Amino acid sequence: MKRTFLGNIFLWVMIAFTACNTPENVDPNQNPVISSGSVETVTSTTLPAAVLSSISQDFAGQTITEALKEIGSDGTVMYTVTMSSQNVASYNEIGSRGTEVALANLAQAITDYVNSNFAGNNVSRAVNLLKTANVNLTLVRLSGNQVLSFDAANNFLNGEVEGNDDDDDDDDCTETSIAISDLPQAARDYITANYAGQNIQEAYKKDCKGTIQYEVELSNDVEILFDANGQFLKEEKDDDGDNDDKGSNKNEVAINATDLPQAIQTYIATNYAGKTIAKAYKTTDAAGATTGYEVELNDGTEVYFDANGAFVKEEKDIEGTETAIAVSDLPQVIQTYITTNYAGRTITKAYKITDAAGTLIGYEVELSDGTEVYFDANGAFVKAEQD
Predict the structure, then answer these.
(1) Is the same domain home to 299 and 343?
(2) Do residue 110 and residue 210 come from a single domain?
(3) Claim to verify: residue 185 and residue 257 sit in the same structural domain
(4) Residues 345, 232 within the same domain
(5) How high does pLDDT run on average in the chain?
(6) Are residues 47 and 117 in the same domain?
(7) CA distance 110 to 254
(8) What is the count of structural domains for the chain?
(9) Is 19's pLDDT higher than 70?
(10) Looking at residue 171, what DSSP letter applies?
(11) What is the pLDDT of residue 238?
(12) Is residue 353 part of a domain?
């Protein structure tokens, strides 16, 4: 009896020890939850500028009484602020505001996951947040200050996943060259409408951990990224014309404006009367052969030429003072352009841009998927960027 009694004591101790060392709320028949996110109180001065800008637009005249930095289980960062009016709002890192989800409307799959894996914790808040272009997550904060991330299909996201980094970070992507005819029709239509006169040089299908994207390289060295349905995501320009994203070597050397080919000097004088060349560069390949030229004008315009001095493209950063305006105050040509080229997306913010003298120089439009589209003072498309 004594040996049996001591054996029972040993067994009870081992059971207690095991219970104390088993991660709380983790089903022992499943893999342990690696991350459950975090909530941190921060000062309003540490909020990203894009978030502060959005807050000032959304809550003009109000002050921030509390700011939280919430990190989801997948690494997604969300900033939640409480305003002096007691309104609460959440934003992603680029200032896009999330949509609060009524707890009564929270997907049953999410509720079931929380009940199964975080027993004893209640859902205190849920937000639908834009993560990257066309990628929305639901971030759920629990009463224990855990923050769980769920994808559009209500699957729990654990640890770092695709989407935390830039879309064109190829470390987690496999890329396959495809025929132009294999591109989604929507992507081909977009190129035809927006890049008249340019030819598709190369097309790729990218698989980024199950997320399909398409990349297109045009004859003017522009690279365009589309989602699996052929919807525009973002545009990038290979300024040196040698596809450096594909691993080509390049070199850019500053030169005097007088060392530019005469064809370039004549082109600038003819097409940019009244402007002067501020900087000039020659680009070469690994063997030292000239591949092109870049000219920066005194108004910020950048003009690119090929090795023979033939015009390739123009870029211009519209930099000035931004003033928020109503969407209805945008020129009709801009509203039409957005409707035509960004179907299914809505304008969340609109700005007019003026120079130091107060002269209108352009417009900026922010879309619901995070795309920023720029237009000149006449409403002509300039460029699009995806944060």
Answers:
(1) no
(2) no
(3) no
(4) no
(5) 79
(6) yes
(7) 57
(8) 4
(9) no
(10) G
(11) 57
(12) yes
The better pLDDT of the pair 302, 1 is held by: 302
Burial 200-229 (b: 16+ CB within 10 A, else e): beebbbbebeebebbbbbbebbbbbbbbee
Domain hosting 335: range is 321-386
pLDDT tens per residue across span 214-225: 999 887 778 888
Mean pLDDT along residues 309-334? 86
Tell me how many degrees the CA angle 331-335-340 measures, rounded to the nearest 5.
145
Q: pLDDT tens digits for 148-170?
A: 988 888 888 865 333 333 444 45
Nearest one of 14, 143, 148, 133 to 73, comparing CA atoms = 148
Q: What CATH number does residue 368 fall under?
A: 3.40.1420.30
Q: Are 21 and 145 in contact (CB under 8 A)?
A: no
Q: Output the pLDDT for position 203.
A: 87
Average pLDDT value for residue range 32-47: 73
3-class secondary structure, 60 = coil
Cβ neighbours of 108 (radius 10 Å): 8
pLDDT on residue 59: 92
Instruction: Taking each helix axis as running N to C, give the angle between helix 185-194 and helix 332-341, from 0 to 180 degrees, rounded to the nearest 10.
Output: 150
Mean pLDDT of 61-89: 90
User: In degrees, to the nearest 5, what angle opens at C-alpha 49 toward C-alphas 47 and 52?
Assistant: 65
Q: How far apart (Å, rounded) are the C-alpha atoms in residues 94 and 133? A: 12
Q: Of 282, 297, 316, which residue sits at a domain end?
A: 316
Are 380 and 372 in contact, with CB atoms under 8 Å apart? no
What token pair was written down for 293?
């030229």
